Structure prediction request, 903 residues.
Amino acid sequence: MGPLPPESAPVVAAPGVAAPVVAVPGVATPVRRRLPEILAPAGDRDALAAALAAGADAVYFGLDDGFNARARATNFASDSLAEVVAWIHRAGARAYVTLNTLVFEPELPIVEQLIRRVAAAGTDAIIVQDPAVALLARAVCPALDVHASTQMTASSPLAAELLRGLGLARVVVPRELSVDEIRRYAAGTALPLEVFIHGALCVAWSGQCLSSEAWGGRSANRGQCAQACRLPYQLIVDGHERDLGDVAYLLSPKDLVGLDAVPQLAELGVASLKIEGRLKAPHYVATTVAQYRAATAAVAGQPPPAAPVPIPLDEPSLHIAYSRGVTRGFLAGADHQTLVEGRFPQHRGVPLGRVARIEGSSVLVAPDPAQRLVTGGRAMAPMDQAPDLDARPSRLASPATGIDDTDPRTRVAPRAGMGVVFDRSRPGEPEEGGPIFAVDDAPQGHWLRFGRPGPELANVRVGDLVWITSDPRVTRAGEKAAEAGRAPLGRIAIDLTVRGVVGAPLEVVAVVTAGRGLSVRATTATALAAATGAGLLPGVIIDKLGALGGTPFHLGSVDTADLAPGAHVPVSELKELRRTLVARLDAAITRVARPIASASVIDELRRLGPPLDHDPIIDPIIVPLCRTDAQLDAVLEAGAAEVELDWMELVGLGKAVARARKRGVRVGIATVRVQKPGEELIDQHLAKLAPDHILVRSWGSLAAFAQLARPPVLHGDFSLNVTNSITAAWVLGRGLATLTAAHDLDRDQLFALLARAPRGRIAVTIHHHVPTFHTEHCVYAHLLSTGRDYKTCGRPCERHEVALRDRVGLVHPVVVDVGCRNTIFNAQAQSAASLVPALLAHGVRRFRVELVRESADEAARVFTAYTQLAAGQLAAREVVRRAAVHEQFGVTRGTMRTLTVLR
Prediction:
């Protein structure tokens, strides 16, 4: 197992940084300060080697067997995993394997066997999304650490403490949390925290994005994200298109750069700083790892650690390696004006200026003051006054790069060999770019001369933005790091205790400094003799036993207090002793000794839940989920016996509960989909309304309501992402009456779950607009105001209805909840009407019909049609036809293939 555990990651773990320390009796040795590990991505072997050479404390990667959230990465073969893990351990790092997707019922035996293979290879930890994978790992190999992926949406300390029951050793907190919220999170859980510190940002909460599933049948929860957030959209306000000029990528965040937050996160005890990028090149991995290693060293007052090859540590190189623009994400709190820039969705690098003149093959680039707008870097300042509603201009004139090019730390001068792109920022238009052949400075800026290959300057216009997108110096450093990382790096510090007396063999005990007591022992073949000279002085011992070049080790301290003076042994014996120690240390750090269960544990885990053979005796019920007063009144008039209320901003919710209860109807209330630290008050408010049941949408809310002295009936919603019987058994065991099947399931996968889950305990949503994105970023605040957050935005959501039109003309509603989070619902309704008879046969009794912006007449029509279907009074085809009457964009089966609808 890995020699450098997270809680003792050293400040310096690179060769040549510190001289060996000789222990002196009575003098205390230096104490190493605990710092967050730097956790690097590795999509292939080159990236892995670059990460190790740059000094990563741990590396995370996926297997080509699947079940990891980056299916498009090259990944690693599981049959060579033991060799890869040994390589990582010899570099003094830890190996984390990502098994961070949802698992379908037929795949449980495959995942169980994969966990055995991962455990046998000596992997230090697995990163998981699905509770079933955590439970399988704990049962198969209790010594294998399990980390909760950000895909698990453990968004609050209440959630973390609930999920700790899965046997977790660490939780990856969501990217949407600020440093202050992470501090509150850490105070509320015993679990160590891992924080994303750099890289691409998903606009949706991890684990809660269904856009790829809804629009392409390739789920992000299965590692097949289609990056719908990087596509252009048009803003529709109150039914009319709003002209935003060249701002089209309304859901594409800039990239996170968290260098400024490193000291705060280290101070509050975060265990790990995670770099995103398993699809990135080696030069990106090497550059980011080196820069964040330097940042953590600076926290301890240390110089940047040495690396086997030079890696640029200037800030422009960090952005040139890969950047869609710079933002601090949510680490400094919400800032809806800076998270999404909107003019491009791809790599841009560092801004250089604008085209001022074109002459032949040369372009004059002049500095552009607009490109100096700082929106995510060190100099960003908060707005000091609230804006007027709708004061935002229709055309955004200046790009928010997030890079302050007036700061010498971020300024870059163009050089021959660098790559540039001419940014016209009009969706669909090809961009010109290429390498610079020569640079001539001019009073107005820089003349850039191009050749072949190079840009077609006929397509470049005066005024186009110019970005530096590549630098051979950065690329070559990554390539050299990828070469160096394949050789022994000498990163593992060992402390030697040397003891012996004349007439006995010389004994040396080597202890891996950060290895939790990992040690080996060796002795000379011959006894120590009396020296004719000075004998074995510390310098001789350091010279001969510390000659560890070409090995995974370097010398830390040497203790010779128990070595008798005047003793001598031949130098050849010392060299042989060193070789023996190295061989034994190598075997120790790569040895795997952990019990692994050989028999299947799947049935045992299924039995943790309610009995499987309970046959429901209740009649089927169609439960309408309403979001407006008009919808509620309509379904009450249509005879609903039970309703669920999703008052996304909670305004008027108490009156709606009272109105439904007055009609003798059972009332349920939906929680918000995400519970952040401090938002427990929302659940307390819902509890005070005394509903008949709660529709639980987050792990934190489940924990909050389950711990009440007299909790209401609890029903779990789709957002808990239950896709298999093991997870279903565990979740139902936490106090739920039913849980809703995840939207990632297709027909066959759903029925496979139902065949193994307790009958009558699985609910199914049979009509809804899929909530494609659930995002902390507020489209209303960004595009209808100049405010950073709810305090300064003027709350345009209370006066306007917003939707987004995609490339094919579908218009997707955007709805705001009480936490100012946006849910973007699919334009097309999805129906499972044709499955209802089979679902009834499988014991399903609870069906949900979800409404978004339907009118009262539309709500009544849909609810009545599905009620008649469940009663056997209406055919599925007729149900769909009635629903489609008011659906502008039709009705589909979603993952069940598109329906042919009579219009």
